[in-house]
Design the sequence.
């Protein structure tokens, strides 16, 4: 079986067809990548917002718990006062 003769115009047409096919494939990949990156950005900012809400919502509860713990704890005795011979008499 004899193959038809290849011409320069036919070669350029084959290259152009291949370029068109690759452009369609890469356009599809680029669109999907755009959706994925958009979803990741949305997820990131959603988590950041959720953490901010958790932080600011729970802050009054932490302050109230600390105040309640301070009120429930018995007062600690004051530290002992140093004796007069302990202050400044380190001449040995």
Sequence:
């Amino acid at each position: 079986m004899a193959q038809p003769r290849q011409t320069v115009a036919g070669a350029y047409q084959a290259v152009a067809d291949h370029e068109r096919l690759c452009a369609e494939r890469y356009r599809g990949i680029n669109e999907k990548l755009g959706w994925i990156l958009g979803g990741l950005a949305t997820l990131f900012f959603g988590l950041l917002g959720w953490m901010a809400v958790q932080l600011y919502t729970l802050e009054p509860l932490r302050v109230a718990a600390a105040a309640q713990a301070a009120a429930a704890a018995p007062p600690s005795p004051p530290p002992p006062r140093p004796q007069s011979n302990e202050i400044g008499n380190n001449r040995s």
In short: The two ends are 117 Å apart (CA to CA).
